[in-house]
Recover the amino acids of this structure.
């Protein structure tokens, strides 16, 4: 099982949001996370998989875009394909003290 890779993208002209590149290898899942004050907009740029936001499960494919409101627990997973996405956070995430609470581990699969 692979590990979620993340990299902040610098766009100095955007002070009210920030951007994160995310890569999830095949047969992997992200940790379940809640952002208390931050809205996250996720755009799938490659591959596919699935996700769960506030208990609602769905498939994700290249070109999909979804919004995760503040306070919503969310998790993403892959099966055969990897998944690449760009996430936009507003208000911007503080790199030193991010608004991201990792939730206790539950069994998460794409089934």
């Amino acid at each position: 099982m692979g590990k979620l890779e993340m990299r902040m993208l610098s766009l100095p002209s955007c002070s009210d949001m920030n951007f994160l590149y995310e890569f999830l290898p095949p047969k992997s899942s992200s940790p379940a996370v809640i952002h208390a004050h931050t809205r996250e907009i996720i755009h799938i740029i490659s591959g596919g998989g699935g996700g769960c936001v506030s208990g609602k499960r769905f498939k994700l494919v290249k070109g999909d875009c979804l919004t995760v409101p503040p306070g919503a627990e969310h998790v993403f997973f892959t099966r055969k394909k990897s998944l690449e996405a760009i996430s936009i956070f507003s208000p911007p995430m503080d790199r030193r003290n991010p608004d991201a609470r990792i939730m206790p581990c539950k069994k998460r699969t794409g089934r």
